[in-house]
Amino acid sequence: MNKFEEILSSFSINKPYIENEVEASKQGNLASNIDILEAFKRSLNGLFVETKNTDNFYNMVTSAPDAFGLENNPSPEIVKNTLIKTINADSNLKFALLPSDCENSPYDFSVFPPENGESVNDYWIWFVKCDFFPGPYWLLIKREGSADGYSYGYM
User: Fold this and answer.
1) Is residue 146 exposed (0-12), middle (13-18) or buried (19+ Cβ within 10 Å)?
2) Is 18 helix (H, G, I), strand (E, B) or coil?
3) 94-97 and 150-153: which strand pairing?
4) Residues with Cβ within 8 Å of residue 4, at least 6 apart in sequence
5) Strands 17-18 and 94-97
6) What would the pLDDT profile of 47-62 be if each residue is shown by its tens digit?
7) What is the C-alpha separation between 75 and 41, in angstroms, rounded?
8) What is the Cα–Cα distance from 147 to 151, expressed in whole angstroms?
């Protein structure tokens, strides 16, 4: 288990983290007030909070709780537990640091830059490949470290 998978495990997520040491080293040399491991941990918190962007895992559960076997208006803790269960049930789900050059991705799956234009120069960004969300998905946190991590996707 690598250090990223240890962080995932601390969230009760048992999914692979696809490491790319060259890309991590390259991005680690960019200006940042938080290191890659702290950034990953803080960005994962963004999976479990409601945001104004409606295209995210959290809002997917709260907007259609019956699709997840839940009653209307589930508590944040129930949403979090449901998301962990859904994430763990997705046999193809992977987490990977978004490469600075998405067109020449080192991964065996396609990656896309964030829809809202965030750049690896200003953000730590992870791409989440999964089957249960219909489009690309990202975890993000500003490199300056002053804001909370967040997540969103594109449907």
Assistant:
1) exposed
2) strand
3) unpaired
4) 17, 19, 37, 40, 95
5) parallel
6) 998 887 778 999 999 9
7) 23
8) 13
